[in-house]
Structures are given as C-alpha cells and as structure tokens.
Amino acid sequence: MTAALRHARYVLGENPVTAFAFALFFVFALCAALGPALAPYDPLASNAGESLAGPSAAHWFGTDQLGRDILSRIVVATRLDLGIATTAVVLAFAIGALSGLAAGYYGGWIDRIVGRAVDTIMAFPLFVLAMGIVAALGNSVANIVIATAIINLPIYARLARAEANVRRGAGFVEAARLCGNSEARIVLGQLLPNILPLMMVQVSLTLGYAILNAAGLSFIGLGVRPPTAEWGIMVAEGASFIVSGEWWVAFFPGIVLMTAVFCFNLMGDGLRDIVDPQRRT
Amino acid sequence: MIVLRRLATALPVIAGVIVVTFLLTRALPGDPAVYFAGPAATKQAIEEIRHQLGFDRSLPVQFLDYLERLAHADLGTSLTTGQPVLTELLTRLPASGELMLLALFLSVGIAVPLGITAAMRPGSGVDHACRVVTTAGVSLPTFFTGLLLVYVFYYLLGVAPAPLGRLDVFFSAPPQHSGFYLIDSLLAGDIETFCAALGQLVLPAATMAIFTLAPLARITRAAMLEALGSEFIRTARASGLSGPRIVFVYAFRNAVLPVITTLGVVLSFMLGANVLVEKVFAWPGIGSYAVDALIASDYAPVQGFVLMMALLYVLLNLVIDLVYGVVDPRVRLEA
C-alpha cells in the first residue's frame, strides 16, 4: 500500500496539473456540500431594482434579469449538477460493471444478450438517445439521471467484459475455484477488485461527460425547471442577453460548467497515469 | 461483396434501433394517447387517438403495426403543425446536413494537420498547443462555445451576422436544387447570397468543429507518434527517402486508420451537438425542430427525429467501415 501511495505521490509530483485538478475537485465538492451556506445571497431572491447589473464588488458575477445574484446561484447549483452526474455515473457503473463481468466471465447467452444491448445503445448518437428517453419517460430530473446513466452504460459494460474475459482463466481465479468459492463469489470477490482501478479512471472521465450531457439537456429545456438554479439552464436564460451585450448572465455559469468538466477530465487522465503507467502520454 | 456482408451485420443493429424507438413510444408515462392527443384534447379525441394509434391493442400487434407504418415511411403527424413528421424532417434535413458537413470539414481540416505537426515535433510549441486544444475542446459545452462566439464576433466585433437562421431576412433563399444554400446559390450564380449564407454558417460550424476537433487531434497525434517511431520508418529514413514522403506516404498512411475509427465517435458527438448548436443559432434544421416539439410535448416528431438520427448514424458508420476497407487492404483481405 505504501508503495502504491509513493507511486501516486511521484506521479502527482511529476504532473502538477493532476494535483491542480484534485484541488479544484475539492473546491467543487465543498460547494456541493455546503452550497447554500457559502452563497452570499439567496439564489432565488429576485430584486427588480438591480436586474442585469454587471459584475461589481457586491455581486461578483453580476445579476440576472430578475436581479438574482449569479454567484450565489452558481454555488448553489453545484450540488444539483454534480448530484445528477454522480448518481447517473454510479448507476451506469453498477449496472454496467455487473452485466459486463457476467458477460465476460460466463460467456454464452449472457454475453450475447449484453453485447446486443450495448450495441443497440451505441447505435444511437448518445445525446439524441438521451433526448428520446427523457421525452418518453417524462420531463423530470430523475429521468435526466436515468437517461444519462443509460448512455454511459456501454463504456462500463464493455470495459468490464473485456477485463473479465482476459482474467477468467487466470491463476488466481483457478485457485479461488479450487478453494470451493462459488461462481458469484469469484466474480464479485476476485474479479471485481482486480478491474476496479481501471473502472475508477473511467468514472472520472465519464463524470465530465455526464455533467456536459445533463447540462445540455437542461439547456434545451428538459429536466430542471426554472427558477431552480442549474448551470445549463442558467446559460440558457443568459443566451438571450448575449446579443444585447449582457455577457455575464451566460458567461459565468458556462465557465464554471466548463471548469468542472475540465477538472474531471484532467483527474481522469491523472488517475490513469497512476493506475496504468503504460498509457501515460 | 464486402458491401453486402457489411450491410448484413448492420441489420441486427437496425432491428435493435427500431425496437428501442418503438419502446420509447410505449414508455410514455401514464396514458400515451393523452400525450399524443396534446394538452387541449377532449375525452373523445383521446379515445379516437387511442384507437387510431392502436394503443387499445396488445403490444406485439402494436409492434407489427409500427413496422407496417415504418414500411410505408409513416412517422406520424406533428400536432403543432399538422404536417406529416417525415416530410417536415426531410425539408429541414438539408439545413442540418450543410451545417454538419461544413463543421466536419473544418474539424478534420484543422485536427489532422495539427496532430501531425504535434507528433513530428514532440515537446514543441505546436505539441503543447495540441495538448491544450485536445483537453479544453472536450470540456467545452457546445452551447457555451456558441454563445461566446456570438458575443465576440457579433456583439463586440460586429463581423458576424445575427445568429438567426440560415440567411438574413434581406436575402431570399436560392432556387432549390440540393437544399444546400452554398451550392444552390453558386448554381444560381448569386455570389451575394453565397457570401450571406456562408457568413451565417461560419459561427455554428466553428462551434461544432471546436467540440469535435479534440478527439481527432488527439488520436492523430498518438497514431502518428506510434507510426513515426516504428521500424519501417527507421528503414525508410536510413534508405534516404525524403522527409515529406516518409511523413505523408509511409507514416500517415498507417496512422490514418485509427483516425477513421475515431470519426465514428466524432459523428456521434456531432449529431448530438447539432441539437444544441441549432438551438443557439436558431438554425432551422431537424435538431431545433425536435427541441421545439419536445417543449410543446409533441412526441411524434421527437420519436421520428430519434429514429432518423439513429438510422443516419448507422449509415454513416457503414460508410466509415467501407472507407476503412478502401484505405487498408488488410481489412479487405480479412473480410
């Protein structure tokens, strides 16, 4: 364990960008956890006297068309945005990993069914499929989560299948079987821990994509409804003011959204460097 | 022969796509007939729609019915406009097609040279620029990039036209041949309209290109690095072949394969991003059509849109596979 930690510290030291990404993630996590307590104003309190005011000392990121403080709305929205993405990725991870492991370990008809299902999902342009799912299931935040989970599922199922397939005949699996472990126990107790590091890298990378996807869906008016603060919807609300020069309404939520995705992508790359040194670029 | 065999492998995928779109129609929460009838429908109208759409019959029967409808190219009728969905999608397809094609050209035209140059000089300024572009590009929400470009080029600099559709209101659309304004206006010899249409196209196409550039540049760089480091390149160098010949004929010919594979992913991104970009630029394509329908709870156009995009994507992947076979003789031999 200490060797692994030392290796992690070495890789982080080599690549300060990764360390920066982890620090940034910490900030986002803090905002998500303490959101309402950190926000300087009430994110829903409108103030007609101060509508569309540019960035100032009182309102760092300016105010929107209803005079609401944009900084406060961004900070409070962190929990919702990260919450949607995290729940979706955890769902995709759980279902994808289990079905992929089963497909790779048992082969046969399970493999064919999982393979066919994954191929079918991948046959759609993913954002379009997410739109279709939300349209069919109903326009709600829960369904945004489900749609985002479904379009992220193939990545996990394929990765888990490939890794389980390679390891099904490995020595440690044979040994576990000889000791009398049940098949399910081998899959969950031996195979899963072995592929977990690789899967964790994917979690970080897909989290960024999940945030983008969820924000895109709410940008076109799905899921989150006003006046709830959410990054995608805030950019959508600010879009109409861009052509008249009130850039801050859309700019700040957009730049924070971008930073969050950037942070997860960098973290994913960094995690891969730690877990899988051969693929370092 | 290869074409036929490849077509056969696409069939189960198409079948899967059709089943999923059917299930999406069926999964509507509550009573689907109520949704298809729209918010203002009377009880009688709902019953009528239920019967008309066959929701009062069993699921397999409905599926056969759905297949029959598809066979007759019937995707249902839009509630808001009262027009058949397929006709509306087809009239709007050229607008989206023109936008996406131009974006694809831009994206490939920038990403591939950038990736090659970066791979030729690892650690140089170009390489760092390539790294920044690839990491930042995938993190940029398309709708946000679009708005930024509008702000800078329309509001601040005033060089771009207002982000309101394919053509400024002062111009009339060129006579319809291909449906692509750029081609049609050239055919009509109308340079002014051509410039106006191009001006409207540049920002949305650039927005989409920025988003799709990253994976392409990244894979080009990686593939070129690997190709340039291989033994046959060393042999070619030792044999005294010229630099450009080594890079373009020997290395790039081999590096182009993963790039073509990545094009599949890029197209998936692009078809999705198209929806967002069309919304930002009020582009009268199929993406904004679907979004408008979605907001109006008009579901037939959305289902039709999803089906059309999926079939389009399957088709594009087929084309990519065929190109793959043309570029790499080994693929043909294996098949």
Describe it.
The complex is a heterodimer of chains A (about 280) and B (about 325). Chain A has about 280 residues and is an all-alpha fold. In chain A, about 75% of the residues lie in helices and about 0% in strands. Chain A has a single domain (about 1-35, about 60-280), classed as MetI-like fold (Orthogonal Bundle). Chain B is mainly alpha-helical. Chain B has 14 helices and no strands. In chain B, helix 7 packs across helix 11 (about 245-280) and helix 11 runs parallel beside helix 12. The interface between A and B is large, with 48 and 56 residues.
The named CATH superfamily of chain A: MetI-like
Number of helices of chain A: 10
Class computed from helices, strands and strand pairing of chain A:
mainly alpha
Q: How many individual domains of chain A? A: 1
- Counting DSSP H or I runs of 4 or more residues, the number of helices of chain B is 14
CATH class of chain A: Mainly Alpha
Overall pLDDT score of chain A: 84
**How does the major sheet of chain A shape up?**
none
Percentage of residues in helical conformation of chain A: over 70%
What order do the SSEs of chain B take from the amino end to the carboxyl end, as H and E? HHHHHHHHHHHHHH
Quickly give the structural class of chain B.
mainly alpha
Low-pLDDT runs of chain B: none
User: How many runs of DSSP E, i.e. beta strands of chain A?
Assistant: 0
Query: What separation lies between the terminal Cα atoms of chain A?
Result: 25 Å
Distance between the termini of chain B: 9 Å
Largest interface (C-beta under 8 Å):
A-B, 48 and 56 residues
Give helix and strand order of chain A, one letter per element, not per position: HHHHHHHHHH
Which bin fits the share of residues in helices of chain B?
over 70%
